[in-house]
Amino acid sequence: MFKLGLGALILTLVVSLAFLACDTGSTTTTTPPPQPLGADIVVVGGGLAGLSAAISAVQEGASVILVERFAFTGGASATSGGGIAAAETSVQANASPPVTATIAAWRAHFAMRQGSIAPASLRNTNFPIVAATDFMTAQAGPFIEWMVGMDFPFGAPWFFGRDLDLRLHSGVAPYNGGGGLMTFFRNQAEDAGVTIMLNALAVEVLQESGPGSAVTGVRLQNGTVINAQAVILAGGGFAANLQEFLPNVNFPVTGGHAGSDGSAINMAVAAGGELHDDPWIKGVGLAAAVGNLNAAASLIENPPANQTIVGGASPNSTAMFVNQRTGARVVHETHHYSILTGAAFYAGLQGDTLFAIFDSRISRPTAAQLANAELFYADTIAELATLAGIHADLAATVTAWNAFSYPADDPLNNELFDLDHHFPITQAPFFAVRLVPTIMGTFGGVRTIFTTGAVLANGSDTATIPGLFAAGETASRAFYDKVYVAGTGLAQAGTTGRAAGLAAAAFVAP
């Protein structure tokens, strides 16, 4: 293994997570020095995938330098809810009452959810790759047990949205939420002996003789070289740079971590890796283009508590959603949040727009919202369609919507969701507002061997680039089609990060 000489620079950094109200102390930032550094393994990215990889490798005896482009670790993982999906864990078994959640049931639910995408034309039956999801669902439990062994303080298992089984594992204070989770992993990395370099943007994988050959380290943006026998790329996806990977995205999209610009993916490709096809977004809900539109509780008979009229991550919409070009509905309004996001995102890719339609009994927009060019209102549905540029068939769609009395009446209600949030559109004035997809990440990246994270060489299903590994959203496409399922983002990041760390440590072992 690579050992630092007596004259080598030793970096001691105190790292703090500086967002999501999870500040745990001061942040000391250090710009890397110009002289070459070295370790057995370099990890690029300080989110859950990168920190899991670094800790795992150090626990196996390897020396590790982790480089993080920002002044704090955490990445997109810190902006999550902090829930890690897993089944058949001791946390579930020890809950009160005990939680029965099998891997088989999780796999079945995951497969069902991928197949429930709307519109159905979005479905790509090449994904998810069964071997990838089998790996994630089988290894998520051991990942949780690894955390238990590090004394992570788990709370009771929980669920979110339309994914109803108690598979989500998260911490209690001070390690609750995504920020708390990443504070714990940062602390574990420091205690284990991982050298963490902040404000250190990796821009190139160094290799012996060009793309496809064995790696020899990385180069940072300031020219610093870090020599290493293995490199793990865990720098996130491309949520902050959608246009490079999805060129037709010329419409508003909100969310995504600023560091997820695809740079780690591009480094892997430049080193001889190959992109997965058909990249997609990790949707978490819809937003009204004019800001939050609250329900007018005084105008609704027995309104649901905390009711909003459009989207969000919870299935609570009271508005009707239609495509501008057709005036027709394409998705059930209280469907899974990722499916709702996908419908709006797909409409945008087609040059279309998803609108929320509601009446004055449901909400009374503010004066500022009424003045916004993204919201339209009129005394008749026909006039509303004209003003908003929606197809005239909107009138027929509203008539059908108003006639629904039972879940089975709605042809889009395939899962027979209840009608607690269904309100007929009958009282003028009527409103239409553009909907904006909200994302938390992406499905994409480079092809790998799922069990190790080894990056496959371009054009090969078996040959890998010696010493190059990828984890998390840098290599996530194989695990999904186009529907995110609660807790699987962190499960995929954690399991692939740990697998890459273990495999890299084995690769560099003498």
Description:
This protein is α/β, with parallel strands linked by helices and 510 residues long. It has twelve helices and 19 strands. A hairpin with a 4-residue loop joins β9 and β10.
SSE layout:
Layout: E1 37-38, E2 41-44, H1 48-59, E3 64-67, E4 84-85, H2 90-93, H3 103-115, H4 130-149, E5 158-160, E6 163-169, H5 177-192, E7 195-197, E8 202-207, E9 215-220, E10 225-227, E11 230-233, H6 242-245, E12 254-255, H7 263-270, E13 280-288, E14 320-323, H8 337-349, E15 354-359, H9 367-370, E16 375-378, H10 381-388, H11 394-403, E17 430-443, E18 454-456, E19 464-470, H12 488-508
Parallel strand pairs: 1-10, 2-3, 2-11, 3-7, 11-19, 12-17
Antiparallel strand pairs: 4-6, 5-6, 8-9, 9-10, 13-17, 14-15, 15-17, 16-17, 18-19
Give a brief description.
This protein is 26% helix and 18% strand. It is an alpha/beta fold.
Mean pLDDT across all residues, rounded? 88
* Number of helical stretches of at least 4 residues: 12
Low confidence ranges: 2-28, 297-307, 311-315
Rg: 24 Å
Amount of helix: 25-40%
Beginning-to-end CA distance, first to last residue: 6 Å
Number of strands: 19
